[in-house]
Amino acid sequence: MTGVAYGAAFAHWRDGCGDGWRAYTHHAFVEGLERGSLPRAAFLHYLVQDYLFLVHFARAWSLGVVKAETLDEMKTCASTVDALVNHEMSLHVKICAEAGIDEATLFAATEEIENVAYTRYVMDAGLQGDFLDLMAALAPCCFGYGEIGARLDGSADAQTPYRDWIETYADEDYQGVMASVGQMIDAAVLRRLGPDFAKSARWPALQDRFATATRLEVAFWDMGLRGA
Ligand SMILES: Cc1ncc(CO)c(N)n1
């Protein structure tokens, strides 16, 4: 566990995942980024898939605007869509361009099944359920990369070629968006479930959504390691 705090709901969900959270945030792929030992081909394979992931992830955050009940929820969801499509994806476009992969090729790439499973699971959580179901499924992506970025910023090998990736997530812009997402989710949980939210009848189902999305993150790293 790191010192990054993204709110009370997240802390409950993370601790309710048991070893699953560590399997995600300390995955061999993450260690490869940290030490610089990750093969470039595996990184690029992951990055192309992650570009496609972010396209669908932005769609899911846009569904948050649709399912929101307050203007504050709408604002946070809209800012997150902006951060994804106008900022985070620039990293993918830049690194892939340097490797000779242009953006049209990225957009048209074939999705790996782990990518399809994850992104459509999140979208379905939001379509079938309400705003909280959607947030529980979106939370591991946001806060996991936030934790990884913050940790690796201090621990990564000075020689790692993945410094630009690490900095994207350690950056105060990304961390700032994640802090506001954490506050918004806490307020959304309080509004719908009350202060004893973790004892509410709905909590186990939300915990299950978070745990499933966390397992899908592990599968996404596995897919990256497997390579093209
Ligand atoms: C698979 C995955 N999870 C989370 C993030 C963070 O946005 C990302 N870029 N990719």
Query: What is the typical, i.e. mean, pLDDT?
Result: 96
CATH class: Mainly Alpha
Question: What ranges have pLDDT less than 50 throughout 5 or more consecutive residues?
Answer: none
In the CATH classification, which architecture applies? Up-down Bundle
User: Which ligands does the model contain, each kind named once?
Assistant: 4-amino-5-hydroxymethyl-2-methylpyrimidine
What percent of the residues sit in helical stretches (DSSP H or I)?
Answer: over 70%
Shape: globular
Q: Would you mind describing this structure in some detail?
A:
One of its GO terms (molecular function) is thiaminase activity. Pathway: Cofactor biosynthesis; thiamine diphosphate biosynthesis. It comes from Pseudosulfitobacter pseudonitzschiae. It catalyses: 4-amino-5-aminomethyl-2-methylpyrimidine + H2O = 4-amino-5-hydroxymethyl-2-methylpyrimidine + NH4(+); thiamine + H2O = 5-(2-hydroxyethyl)-4-methylthiazole + 4-amino-5-hydroxymethyl-2-methylpyrimidine + H(+). The chain is mostly helical. The chain has a single domain (8-226), classed as Heme Oxygenase, Chain A. It is 79% helix and 0% strand. The protein has 11 helices and no strands. It has helices at 8-15, 20-25, 28-35, 40-67, 71-98, 103-108, 113-128, 131-155, 163-170, 172-193, 203-226. The two termini are 31 Å apart. The mean pLDDT is 96. The structure holds 4-amino-5-hydroxymethyl-2-methylpyrimidine. 4-amino-5-hydroxymethyl-2-methylpyrimidine (HMH) binds at residues 50, 53-54, 88, 141, 145, 217, 220.
